[in-house]
Predict the structure.
Amino acid sequence: MLGTGLDIVYPPENLGLYRQIEEHGAVLSEFPFGRRADRQSFAMRNRIVAGMCEATVVIESDVDGGAMITARFAGEQGRLLFAVPGRIDQATSAGCHRLIRDGATLLTSVDDLLSELNYLDGLRPAAIPEKPGTPEGTPKNLTPDEARVFSCFAGGAQLTPDALAELTGLGAAPLSAVLMMLELKRAIAKRADGSFEARS
């Protein structure tokens, strides 16, 4: 969901990601062609983003951050609202702490989110026979990029995002999105040291 017209990619360096979403999903905007990004357009965009989602997760925000606007829209529209706690002396955690104080659900793991949404069973992939070079129980519902990343965990490998980026050739932003989806599909798990491994 864009905060600009469909003919404007903002920021310009996201053109590759824009094309990827365009090819495999959908790029949406309520703005006319030629409308450029500004504070008002992003706030308007966030209203729609909150309405499109069953839940909003605020990971970091100060009390006046843009994420707080999205959180307010989510609350007004009756959507679930989660916030990730942080350091009490860190300004970028102040917004999350205020949301938790005001009733948002404290989020500590992907499992918290899935449990609240009652998606655990629906997202649990069915195991398929193991194939050479792929982890056991490879989920069936993976996109090509997700399958490419998941195949790196063959043999019980434990890999950092940097190692996965080198193995797959994916940039930081696309890889981060793929890892999040693989976690949501319960295909991989994040370890305490920040690396990832396939779920057994």
The CA atoms of residues 159 and 196 lie 5 Å apart.
